[in-house]
Amino acid sequence: MSSLQKIISPRIILLLLFFIVLIPFLPLLISRHWNWWEAWLYAMIYIMSFVISRVLVARRYPDLIAERAHYMQQENIKSWDKLLVLFLGLGGVLVMLVSGLDALFGWSSAFSLPLKILSILILLAGYALSSYAMIENRFFAGTVRIQTDRGQKVVSSGPYRRVRHPGYAGALLANLATPLFLDSSWALLPTVFTMILFVIRTALEDAFLQNELEGYRDYARRVRYRLLPGVW
Question: pTM of the full predicted structure?
Fold first, then answer.
């Protein structure tokens, strides 16, 4: 049996169908506005970002793909992270749900074309940064834990030279841009909720790593900022 066959399971297939197929197309499915080009483009960018990043990671760190395939199944996941992951997932679904309802009932006025162009550039930058962080970091797991089974160590190359949590920084950019590109002022509410959760998770994970991961405290002294250089 190949390593890929070992990873693929009914659970993984269902998760992929939900998060990588259903969620990005949710605004279209709810609104039934099949000529909504922004929603089509958003879904395509979302899916292609996932596929390209995982292909590149699989070539470099196939064991990371296996680690992420066992999402939420490891025994030493921090209890607070299990709760945060649940609410982050809910926040992401709500952004898509509200965007679709907004388009269906016409709650929001359309944003200007220059703002949409800016938002798509921010969206692409966010996905690129998160993907770069994953490709560079062999220990880029989906949950917060010390991966003693995989010999986890501090990663300080690539985007980790600038900020300590570039994956979260990219996620924040992508989250901020999504409701703007999808013309939904109301979707900004769950977006702000989700972004606050990302900041909380960053703070908790950073404190946890400084206390538990050898060498991380020294790394934090060298790379001062968690998410945004010059700010925090």
Answer: 0.91
